[in-house]
Amino acid sequence: MPQQTVHKVEVTPQSARRTNSFWSRMIRQRQLILMSIPMVLYILLFAYGPIWGWLMAFQSYKPGFPILEQTWVGLEQFRFLFTDDSFIRVLRNTIAMSLISLILGFVTAIGLALLLNEIKQTGIKRLIQTVSYLPHFLSWIIVTGLVSMALSTEGGIVNVVLMKLHIINEPILWLGEGKYFWGIVGLTNIWKEVGWNTIIYLAAIASVDPSLYEAAEVDGAGRFRKIWNVTLPGIRPVIVILLIMNVGWILNGGGFDIQYFLGNGQVLDWSETIDIFVLKYGLRIGNYSLGVAAGIFKTVVSIVLLYCANIIAKRLGEERLI
Amino acid sequence: MQTVRKKIKAEPLLFHTFNYLIMLFVVVVTLYPFLNTLAISFNSGVDTTRGGIYIWPRVWTLKNYEAVFLTGKVFDAFWVSVARTVIGTAVSVFLTAMLAYTISRKEYMFRKPVTLIFVLTMYFSAGLIPSYFLIKDLHLLNNFLVYILFPGAGAGLISAFNMLVVRTYIYTLPESLVESAKMDGASDFKVFMSIILPLCAPVLATISLFTAVGQWNSWFDTFIFASSRQELSTLQYELMKLLSSSMNSNANPNMSSTAARDLATMVTPLSIRAAITIVASVPILIVYPFLQRHFVAGLQLGSVKE
């Protein structure tokens, strides 16, 4: 980004004291303030205001009484969470599905971007891109609906193809067995987002200095050598930035909607994530305190992870996110 | 010598064949579920249960769509979805652009804190239950306004990501435009309205698409905050109710013949589901090709480090 220099010369009377200049700046910039502060107040109320509710995690909250008149239980809710088998399982599911989605997502998006970059016919390339971006815009309800149809035992395409290829002899109830669930979540994520995720990589690939390829060619490098030694190092900063961003979302479990819609009684032990746990305890069972505690755990861990990833990236001399 | 040349030529050919095969696979895998659903939505529900419908209907019918629209629920929900998408997008895009303008002004004294407060919201959430209590205390439960105001699955009034995208775009505009307008005595609001906003048209198209898609696809806020008022139900929420009732029957072998037992009627849960899936995705499919070149450019802008 070309940095624009500020030409505006701020004339402040020399005699003006610091406080005076603060207030006079405020008056001078009153329009900028009026244009932004209402939105700041809005976001403070809607996004930061609910932090007040975190107090519930240290109480045994009963609906109907003001929050400050509840019974305080200290860290009891957190202690219960971490000794509760079901929460440990939920945590395992969350991290496993995040990692699977993260790794599969990165590898496939970078791979597809590299392959797309090798297609020189613009029309065909554009067509493939148009098709591959499409699922990104569909809601998770639609996507999981399509997935469950494709995996169905009654003429679902996955079973049909696998049977035609004689890989399996009878239809598999993909969504009825826990051992398949994580993989299905990973693949569904890829199906929806892989095309979309190539956009950034393609932009990064396009900005690699062409003279590097020419130099590599002079040295006798083939297609794969050029990809390995020029393209991939060239897009490394982008990969690192995206990795950092994604690390912050590791307790999202690869999305909430997929597990919510594809999960069912038979795969509960494999499909339940923190978000679903919160929903279940909070709004269905009515144990608000436990739900809030799990939510706090998730938020705090996410921020710590993001912060650590950011520091590691700094140490490695990579670009940082914040 | 000849064999060497052949080898050099054979390598690209092999590679390109392999590459095109992979691309074909990607395209087929992406499109097939869609075409399959489209075919099922136009196929007689009873006939579909016999299986073997791939991308072309066997027994054409419009009954599924009739059933979808005749229930009335879906029709009303469609309009709620349209309303929240149009209003939510217009309000959010305008306010996001205005905020982006203020934080693009280098002289603005609160530029850094304002930016930080919004960027943090990209990574941090107070959680579902506290948010629910807030919405309840603000008397926004079962209120249309929650669709516009709640900064969740939709976008809320401001999307931090979109704000950064617009700000980056404003940086690319010549500063002298703002300077000379201010020289002529234009206020910041006037500069924003008459200079920045028109010039930002391409990037506003991008964030409009992002916001509109978010609004259109949102179901969670309806589910949590507005599920007890049928007249606030959205298309995605109706679809969700339909899907979650029929999906469970799909996963459970004992119930999987529900559809078969439904022979008395022409439509089945599966065929209705297919029809409503198509109804919910058609608006996006119509808008999408026109905006493609904008969102690609926009996303690249957003990825530039602040």
From TrEMBL, chain A:
Q: Where are the transmembrane segments?
A: 32-55, 95-116, 137-160, 180-206, 227-251, 288-313
Q: Where is the ABC transmembrane type-1 domain?
A: 91-309
Question: Where would you find this protein in the cell?
Answer: Cell membrane; Membrane
High-level lineage: Bacteria, Bacillati, Bacillota, Bacilli, Bacillales
Q: Which SUPFAM superfamilies match?
A: MetI-like (SSF161098)
> Which family does the similarity line name?
Belongs to the binding-protein-dependent transport system permease family.
In terms of superkingdom, the source organism counts as: Bacteria
- Name the GO terms of the biological process aspect: transmembrane transport
Would you name any one GO CC term?
plasma membrane
What is the protein's name according to its record? Sugar ABC transporter permease
Question: InterPro entries under this entry?
Answer: MetI-like, MetI-like_sf
Specify the protein's topology with respect to the membrane: Multi-pass membrane protein
**Record keywords:** Membrane, Transmembrane, Transmembrane helix, Transport
UniProtKB/TrEMBL annotation, chain B:
Q: Which residues form a coiled coil?
A: none
Query: Where's it mainly located?
Result: membrane
Example GO CC term: the record gives:
plasma membrane
The residue ranges crossing the membrane are 12-35, 78-102, 114-135, 147-170, 191-213, 270-291
Q: Which InterPro entries match?
A: MetI-like, MetI-like_sf
Keyword Signal present in the record's keywords: the answer is no
Pfam families attached here? BPD_transp_1 (PF00528)
Put simply, this protein is called: Carbohydrate ABC transporter permease
Q: Which organism is it from?
A: Paenibacillus nanensis
